[in-house]
Amino acid sequence: MVPSREAYNVYVKSNMFVRHVIVLLYRVVVNFSKWKIMVRYFFSLLIIFSLFACHPKQQVAISDDMSVVDTVSPRVIPISISDTTYRHVDQTFEQVSYVILSDDVLIGEIVRTLVVDDRIFILDNQNKIFCYNMEGGVEYVIDDYGSGPGEYGRILDFALNPPLKVLWMYDSSRRQLLCYDMFTGKRCQSISAAYMAPERMAIWNGSFFFFMGNHYNYPDNSNMHYSLFYSISGAKIDKSFFPHDQMSEFLFSYGWEHPFYYNDDKLYFINNYGTVVYLLTSESIRPLYKVELPDSLPSDVLMEVTPSLKLMQTRYSWLLSNAYETDGILNLWFQKQGYYYAVYYDLSNDKIIYAGKQVNNIPVKDLLFISQINGVYKNTFFSVVPSFIIKYKIDENPDIFPEDLKSLTEESNPVIAFYKVKR
Q1: How far apart are CA 274 and CA 286, in angstroms?
Q2: Please, which residues bridge with residue 301 across strands?
Q3: Cα–Cα distance for residue pair 287/275, rounded to 1 Å
Q4: pTM higher than 0.90, yes or no?
Q5: Is the peptide bond before 307 cis (omega within 30 degrees of 0)?
Q6: For 312-324, what is each residue's pLDDT tens digit?
Q7: Are 261 and 373 in contact, with CB atoms under 8 Å apart?
Q8: If residue 291 lies in a helix (H) or strand (E), which one and from where to where?
Protein backbone atom coordinates (compact mmCIF):
# COMPACT_ATOMS: atom_id res chain seq x y z
CA MET A 1 0.00 0.00 0.00
CA VAL A 2 1.40 3.37 -1.04
CA PRO A 3 1.11 6.09 1.65
CA SER A 4 -1.25 8.96 0.97
CA ARG A 5 0.19 12.23 -0.30
CA GLU A 6 -1.27 14.04 2.74
CA ALA A 7 0.71 11.84 5.13
CA TYR A 8 3.77 12.29 2.99
CA ASN A 9 3.47 16.11 3.06
CA VAL A 10 3.24 16.20 6.86
CA TYR A 11 6.19 13.85 7.19
CA VAL A 12 8.64 15.74 5.03
CA LYS A 13 8.24 19.05 6.84
CA SER A 14 10.39 17.82 9.74
CA ASN A 15 13.79 18.23 8.13
CA MET A 16 15.03 19.91 4.93
CA PHE A 17 17.65 17.27 4.19
CA VAL A 18 15.24 14.41 4.83
CA ARG A 19 12.73 16.14 2.56
CA HIS A 20 14.98 15.82 -0.48
CA VAL A 21 15.71 12.18 0.27
CA ILE A 22 12.04 11.36 0.72
CA VAL A 23 11.06 13.08 -2.52
CA LEU A 24 13.50 10.94 -4.43
CA LEU A 25 12.53 7.68 -2.73
CA TYR A 26 8.83 8.45 -2.93
CA ARG A 27 9.01 8.76 -6.69
CA VAL A 28 10.94 5.53 -6.99
CA VAL A 29 8.63 3.62 -4.68
CA VAL A 30 5.43 4.87 -6.34
CA ASN A 31 6.68 3.66 -9.70
CA PHE A 32 7.13 0.20 -8.24
CA SER A 33 4.12 0.22 -5.91
CA LYS A 34 3.20 -3.30 -6.90
CA TRP A 35 6.10 -4.45 -4.75
CA LYS A 36 4.28 -3.88 -1.47
CA ILE A 37 6.95 -5.37 0.69
CA MET A 38 9.56 -3.05 -0.79
CA VAL A 39 7.29 -0.06 -0.16
CA ARG A 40 6.87 -0.91 3.49
CA TYR A 41 10.59 -1.58 3.81
CA PHE A 42 11.55 1.77 2.26
CA PHE A 43 9.25 3.81 4.44
CA SER A 44 10.27 1.98 7.59
CA LEU A 45 13.85 2.92 6.84
CA LEU A 46 12.82 6.51 6.19
CA ILE A 47 11.11 6.81 9.56
CA ILE A 48 14.17 5.44 11.36
CA PHE A 49 16.47 7.70 9.33
CA SER A 50 14.43 10.80 10.11
CA LEU A 51 14.55 10.12 13.83
CA PHE A 52 18.34 10.30 13.69
CA ALA A 53 18.53 13.13 11.16
CA CYS A 54 16.10 15.31 13.09
CA HIS A 55 17.72 14.84 16.45
CA PRO A 56 18.24 18.41 17.72
CA LYS A 57 21.81 19.64 17.66
CA GLN A 58 22.85 23.06 18.84
CA GLN A 59 24.71 24.75 15.99
CA VAL A 60 25.15 28.51 15.88
CA ALA A 61 25.97 30.02 12.51
CA ILE A 62 28.90 32.41 12.68
CA SER A 63 28.31 35.87 11.33
CA ASP A 64 30.18 36.47 8.08
CA ASP A 65 31.35 39.85 9.35
CA MET A 66 32.30 38.70 12.84
CA SER A 67 35.23 40.84 13.88
CA VAL A 68 36.78 42.85 16.67
CA VAL A 69 34.63 45.96 16.94
CA ASP A 70 36.90 49.01 16.74
CA THR A 71 34.18 51.63 16.39
CA VAL A 72 33.15 51.45 20.05
CA SER A 73 35.19 53.14 22.76
CA PRO A 74 35.50 50.96 25.86
CA ARG A 75 34.67 52.38 29.24
CA VAL A 76 37.81 53.54 31.05
CA ILE A 77 38.47 52.01 34.48
CA PRO A 78 41.17 54.06 36.27
CA ILE A 79 43.01 52.17 39.01
CA SER A 80 44.90 53.71 41.91
CA ILE A 81 46.50 51.53 44.57
CA SER A 82 45.78 51.72 48.27
CA ASP A 83 48.55 50.80 50.71
CA THR A 84 46.07 49.94 53.45
CA THR A 85 44.60 46.55 54.30
CA TYR A 86 40.96 46.16 53.30
CA ARG A 87 39.42 44.85 56.52
CA HIS A 88 35.81 45.98 56.31
CA VAL A 89 34.98 43.91 53.24
CA ASP A 90 31.56 43.25 54.79
CA GLN A 91 30.63 46.80 53.78
CA THR A 92 30.80 45.64 50.15
CA PHE A 93 29.90 41.94 50.20
CA GLU A 94 27.53 39.72 52.12
CA GLN A 95 27.96 35.95 52.31
CA VAL A 96 24.78 34.24 51.12
CA SER A 97 25.89 30.60 51.28
CA TYR A 98 28.80 28.21 51.19
CA VAL A 99 29.35 24.63 50.06
CA ILE A 100 31.71 22.36 51.99
CA LEU A 101 33.12 19.95 49.41
CA SER A 102 33.11 16.35 50.57
CA ASP A 103 36.44 14.77 51.47
CA ASP A 104 35.33 11.45 49.96
CA VAL A 105 37.70 12.28 47.11
CA LEU A 106 40.92 14.26 47.32
CA ILE A 107 41.25 17.33 45.07
CA GLY A 108 44.74 18.31 43.93
CA GLU A 109 45.86 21.82 43.05
CA ILE A 110 42.85 23.48 41.41
CA VAL A 111 43.26 24.63 37.81
CA ARG A 112 39.72 25.77 36.95
CA THR A 113 36.36 25.98 38.75
CA LEU A 114 32.97 26.52 37.06
CA VAL A 115 29.53 26.57 38.66
CA VAL A 116 26.63 25.78 36.33
CA ASP A 117 23.13 24.33 36.75
CA ASP A 118 23.56 23.78 40.49
CA ARG A 119 26.73 21.78 39.93
CA ILE A 120 30.32 22.64 40.83
CA PHE A 121 32.95 21.48 38.32
CA ILE A 122 36.63 21.43 39.25
CA LEU A 123 39.70 20.52 37.18
CA ASP A 124 42.81 19.79 39.22
CA ASN A 125 46.45 19.35 38.27
CA GLN A 126 46.10 15.55 38.45
CA ASN A 127 44.03 15.47 35.24
CA LYS A 128 40.78 14.84 37.08
CA ILE A 129 37.45 16.63 36.82
CA PHE A 130 35.21 16.57 39.88
CA CYS A 131 31.49 17.26 39.84
CA TYR A 132 29.81 18.23 43.13
CA ASN A 133 26.21 19.08 43.92
CA MET A 134 25.31 22.19 45.90
CA GLU A 135 25.25 20.19 49.13
CA GLY A 136 28.90 19.28 48.65
CA GLY A 137 28.30 15.68 47.66
CA VAL A 138 30.35 14.05 44.91
CA GLU A 139 28.28 13.38 41.78
CA TYR A 140 31.13 11.84 39.80
CA VAL A 141 34.85 12.07 39.05
CA ILE A 142 36.28 11.85 35.53
CA ASP A 143 39.55 10.03 36.07
CA ASP A 144 40.59 8.30 32.85
CA TYR A 145 44.22 9.36 32.79
CA GLY A 146 46.46 6.79 31.13
CA SER A 147 47.89 5.51 27.86
CA GLY A 148 45.35 2.80 27.09
CA PRO A 149 42.19 2.74 24.95
CA GLY A 150 39.49 5.07 26.19
CA GLU A 151 41.95 6.97 28.36
CA TYR A 152 43.40 10.45 27.99
CA GLY A 153 46.70 12.23 28.57
CA ARG A 154 47.12 15.73 29.93
CA ILE A 155 43.87 17.66 30.40
CA LEU A 156 44.80 21.26 29.82
CA ASP A 157 41.35 22.79 30.21
CA PHE A 158 37.60 22.17 30.08
CA ALA A 159 34.40 24.05 29.31
CA LEU A 160 30.66 23.46 29.62
CA ASN A 161 27.77 23.61 27.16
CA PRO A 162 24.73 23.85 29.49
CA PRO A 163 21.99 23.87 26.78
CA LEU A 164 23.17 20.45 25.58
CA LYS A 165 24.21 19.32 29.08
CA VAL A 166 27.71 18.35 27.99
CA LEU A 167 31.25 18.96 29.22
CA TRP A 168 34.18 19.29 26.82
CA MET A 169 37.82 18.87 27.79
CA TYR A 170 41.01 19.33 25.80
CA ASP A 171 43.60 16.54 25.91
CA SER A 172 46.84 18.24 24.88
CA SER A 173 48.81 14.97 24.80
CA ARG A 174 46.62 13.38 22.16
CA ARG A 175 45.37 16.61 20.61
CA GLN A 176 41.69 15.80 20.96
CA LEU A 177 38.49 17.27 22.38
CA LEU A 178 36.56 14.87 24.59
CA CYS A 179 32.85 15.23 25.29
CA TYR A 180 31.11 13.98 28.45
CA ASP A 181 27.58 14.07 29.78
CA MET A 182 27.51 16.99 32.20
CA PHE A 183 25.34 15.19 34.77
CA THR A 184 26.68 11.61 34.62
CA GLY A 185 30.32 12.02 33.59
CA LYS A 186 29.95 9.41 30.83
CA ARG A 187 31.93 9.98 27.66
CA CYS A 188 29.83 10.80 24.58
CA GLN A 189 32.27 11.45 21.75
CA SER A 190 35.66 12.82 20.77
CA ILE A 191 36.90 15.22 18.09
CA SER A 192 40.41 15.39 16.69
CA ALA A 193 42.10 18.70 17.48
CA ALA A 194 45.33 17.95 15.63
CA TYR A 195 44.91 21.20 13.72
CA MET A 196 45.77 23.35 16.77
CA ALA A 197 47.51 23.44 20.16
CA PRO A 198 45.44 25.76 22.38
CA GLU A 199 46.31 26.70 25.94
CA ARG A 200 42.77 27.48 27.14
CA MET A 201 39.21 27.07 25.91
CA ALA A 202 35.66 28.33 26.45
CA ILE A 203 32.25 27.50 25.04
CA TRP A 204 29.65 30.14 24.39
CA ASN A 205 26.24 29.70 22.76
CA GLY A 206 27.25 26.21 21.65
CA SER A 207 30.46 27.20 19.87
CA PHE A 208 34.11 27.16 20.90
CA PHE A 209 36.70 29.82 21.64
CA PHE A 210 40.35 28.75 21.91
CA PHE A 211 43.27 30.78 23.23
CA MET A 212 46.83 30.31 21.98
CA GLY A 213 49.24 32.87 23.40
CA ASN A 214 52.20 31.91 21.20
CA HIS A 215 52.92 29.95 18.03
CA TYR A 216 55.95 27.92 19.04
CA ASN A 217 54.22 24.77 17.77
CA TYR A 218 53.59 26.43 14.39
CA PRO A 219 56.54 28.72 13.62
CA ASP A 220 56.03 28.52 9.85
CA ASN A 221 52.23 28.42 9.72
CA SER A 222 51.03 32.01 9.68
CA ASN A 223 47.40 30.86 9.98
CA MET A 224 48.17 29.87 13.57
CA HIS A 225 49.84 33.15 14.55
CA TYR A 226 46.78 34.42 16.43
CA SER A 227 45.74 34.52 20.07
CA LEU A 228 42.02 33.84 19.74
CA PHE A 229 40.29 31.27 17.55
CA TYR A 230 36.58 30.72 17.01
CA SER A 231 35.14 27.35 16.00
CA ILE A 232 31.48 26.51 15.45
CA SER A 233 31.87 22.75 15.96
CA GLY A 234 35.34 22.31 17.43
CA ALA A 235 36.46 20.36 14.36
CA LYS A 236 38.12 23.29 12.58
CA ILE A 237 38.95 26.96 12.94
CA ASP A 238 36.33 29.29 11.49
CA LYS A 239 37.72 32.68 12.53
CA SER A 240 40.98 34.03 13.97
CA PHE A 241 41.57 37.21 15.98
CA PHE A 242 44.38 39.21 17.58
CA PRO A 243 47.45 38.51 15.40
CA HIS A 244 50.58 37.68 17.35
CA ASP A 245 53.05 40.49 17.78
CA GLN A 246 56.54 40.61 19.26
CA MET A 247 55.14 40.34 22.79
CA SER A 248 53.68 36.96 21.89
CA GLU A 249 57.21 35.61 21.64
CA PHE A 250 57.77 36.33 25.32
CA LEU A 251 57.04 33.37 27.59
CA PHE A 252 56.37 34.20 31.21
CA SER A 253 56.37 31.21 33.54
CA TYR A 254 54.63 32.66 36.59
CA GLY A 255 51.18 33.88 37.47
CA TRP A 256 49.18 32.97 34.38
CA GLU A 257 45.45 33.16 34.83
CA HIS A 258 42.65 31.96 32.58
CA PRO A 259 41.82 34.41 29.72
CA PHE A 260 38.07 33.53 29.61
CA TYR A 261 35.64 34.65 32.31
CA TYR A 262 32.00 33.55 32.58
CA ASN A 263 29.66 36.21 33.96
CA ASP A 264 26.27 34.47 33.96
CA ASP A 265 24.94 35.44 30.52
CA LYS A 266 28.21 37.03 29.30
CA LEU A 267 31.68 35.79 28.39
CA TYR A 268 34.67 38.13 28.92
CA PHE A 269 38.18 37.80 27.51
CA ILE A 270 41.55 39.43 28.24
CA ASN A 271 44.40 38.89 25.80
CA ASN A 272 48.01 38.22 26.77
CA TYR A 273 49.54 41.24 28.54
CA GLY A 274 46.40 43.18 27.61
CA THR A 275 44.53 45.82 29.59
CA VAL A 276 41.23 45.65 27.69
CA VAL A 277 38.32 43.45 28.77
CA TYR A 278 36.40 42.17 25.72
CA LEU A 279 32.86 40.85 25.47
CA LEU A 280 32.73 37.71 23.28
CA THR A 281 29.67 36.67 21.29
CA SER A 282 29.09 34.68 18.11
CA GLU A 283 28.53 37.98 16.28
CA SER A 284 31.37 40.20 17.47
CA ILE A 285 34.23 40.80 19.87
CA ARG A 286 33.59 44.11 21.56
CA PRO A 287 35.95 46.06 23.82
CA LEU A 288 34.07 46.63 27.06
CA TYR A 289 36.52 48.10 29.58
CA LYS A 290 39.91 49.75 29.21
CA VAL A 291 41.73 49.31 32.52
CA GLU A 292 44.31 51.97 33.34
CA LEU A 293 46.75 50.15 35.59
CA PRO A 294 49.14 52.21 37.73
CA ASP A 295 52.58 52.14 36.06
CA SER A 296 51.30 49.82 33.35
CA LEU A 297 54.05 47.67 31.84
CA PRO A 298 55.29 49.09 28.49
CA SER A 299 55.81 46.56 25.73
CA ASP A 300 59.44 47.58 25.17
CA VAL A 301 60.24 46.89 28.82
CA LEU A 302 58.59 43.48 28.56
CA MET A 303 60.91 42.54 25.73
CA GLU A 304 64.05 44.00 27.28
CA VAL A 305 63.82 42.84 30.90
CA THR A 306 64.60 39.13 31.23
CA PRO A 307 64.42 36.68 32.87
CA SER A 308 60.84 36.77 34.13
CA LEU A 309 61.86 36.82 37.81
CA LYS A 310 63.77 40.03 37.20
CA LEU A 311 60.75 41.50 35.48
CA MET A 312 58.67 40.79 38.59
CA GLN A 313 60.95 43.08 40.58
CA THR A 314 60.17 46.15 38.48
CA ARG A 315 57.62 48.78 39.54
CA TYR A 316 55.27 47.98 36.65
CA SER A 317 51.74 46.57 36.82
CA TRP A 318 50.72 43.87 34.37
CA LEU A 319 48.95 40.52 33.80
CA LEU A 320 45.39 41.79 34.18
CA SER A 321 42.95 38.94 34.82
CA ASN A 322 39.82 37.66 36.61
CA ALA A 323 37.30 40.03 35.03
CA TYR A 324 34.13 39.14 36.92
CA GLU A 325 31.13 41.43 37.16
CA THR A 326 27.74 41.31 38.87
CA ASP A 327 25.27 43.79 40.33
CA GLY A 328 27.32 46.82 39.30
CA ILE A 329 30.63 45.65 40.80
CA LEU A 330 33.62 44.73 38.63
CA ASN A 331 36.31 42.45 40.08
CA LEU A 332 39.82 42.40 38.60
CA TRP A 333 43.28 41.09 39.42
CA PHE A 334 46.66 42.28 38.28
CA GLN A 335 50.25 41.68 39.33
CA LYS A 336 52.93 44.06 40.53
CA GLN A 337 56.34 43.24 42.00
CA GLY A 338 55.40 39.58 42.46
CA TYR A 339 52.13 40.29 44.31
CA TYR A 340 48.51 39.80 43.29
CA TYR A 341 46.42 42.96 43.59
CA ALA A 342 42.65 42.76 43.96
CA VAL A 343 40.38 45.43 42.47
CA TYR A 344 36.75 46.05 43.39
CA TYR A 345 35.31 48.77 41.16
CA ASP A 346 31.83 50.27 41.57
CA LEU A 347 30.52 50.66 38.02
CA SER A 348 27.28 52.25 39.18
CA ASN A 349 29.07 55.13 40.90
CA ASP A 350 32.23 55.04 38.77
CA LYS A 351 34.68 54.75 41.66
CA ILE A 352 37.17 52.35 43.20
CA ILE A 353 36.08 50.52 46.32
CA TYR A 354 39.51 49.02 46.84
CA ALA A 355 42.66 48.23 44.86
CA GLY A 356 45.50 46.64 46.76
CA LYS A 357 47.25 43.45 47.82
CA GLN A 358 45.79 43.11 51.31
CA VAL A 359 42.17 41.90 51.43
CA ASN A 360 41.75 40.47 54.92
CA ASN A 361 38.21 40.73 56.24
CA ILE A 362 37.23 40.95 59.87
CA PRO A 363 35.00 37.87 60.33
CA VAL A 364 31.42 38.90 61.08
CA LYS A 365 28.14 37.02 60.73
CA ASP A 366 27.39 38.62 57.34
CA LEU A 367 30.84 37.73 56.00
CA LEU A 368 32.66 34.92 57.78
CA PHE A 369 35.48 34.76 55.23
CA ILE A 370 36.34 35.77 51.69
CA SER A 371 39.03 34.89 49.21
CA GLN A 372 39.88 35.99 45.67
CA ILE A 373 36.87 35.97 43.35
CA ASN A 374 36.85 32.95 41.01
CA GLY A 375 33.59 33.42 39.15
CA VAL A 376 29.97 34.53 38.97
CA TYR A 377 26.89 32.36 39.45
CA LYS A 378 23.27 33.53 39.56
CA ASN A 379 24.20 37.17 40.21
CA THR A 380 26.61 36.30 43.02
CA PHE A 381 30.39 36.18 43.12
CA PHE A 382 31.98 32.95 44.28
CA SER A 383 35.36 32.06 45.73
CA VAL A 384 37.25 28.80 46.16
CA VAL A 385 38.38 29.18 49.75
CA PRO A 386 41.16 26.94 51.10
CA SER A 387 40.28 25.32 54.41
CA PHE A 388 43.35 26.76 56.14
CA ILE A 389 42.00 30.30 55.54
CA ILE A 390 38.76 29.34 57.23
CA LYS A 391 40.67 27.85 60.17
CA TYR A 392 42.55 31.12 60.47
CA LYS A 393 39.31 33.12 60.50
CA ILE A 394 37.78 30.82 63.10
CA ASP A 395 40.70 31.60 65.40
CA GLU A 396 39.88 35.32 65.07
CA ASN A 397 36.25 34.99 66.15
CA PRO A 398 35.20 31.39 66.93
CA ASP A 399 31.80 32.25 68.43
CA ILE A 400 30.19 33.23 65.12
CA PHE A 401 31.21 30.15 63.13
CA PRO A 402 28.89 27.14 62.74
CA GLU A 403 30.01 23.65 63.70
CA ASP A 404 30.29 22.34 60.13
CA LEU A 405 33.04 24.88 59.43
CA LYS A 406 34.75 24.27 62.76
CA SER A 407 35.05 20.59 61.90
CA LEU A 408 37.27 21.35 58.90
CA THR A 409 40.97 20.56 59.04
CA GLU A 410 43.75 22.24 57.10
CA GLU A 411 43.85 19.15 54.86
CA SER A 412 40.14 19.34 54.00
CA ASN A 413 38.96 20.11 50.50
CA PRO A 414 38.22 23.79 49.83
CA VAL A 415 34.89 25.50 50.46
CA ILE A 416 32.95 27.26 47.69
CA ALA A 417 31.54 30.52 49.08
CA PHE A 418 28.96 32.77 47.42
CA TYR A 419 28.66 36.52 48.00
CA LYS A 420 26.17 39.15 46.95
CA VAL A 421 26.85 42.85 46.67
CA LYS A 422 25.69 44.74 49.73
CA ARG A 423 23.44 47.69 48.93
Answers
A1: 14
A2: none
A3: 10
A4: no
A5: yes
A6: 788 999 999 999 9
A7: no
A8: strand 285-292
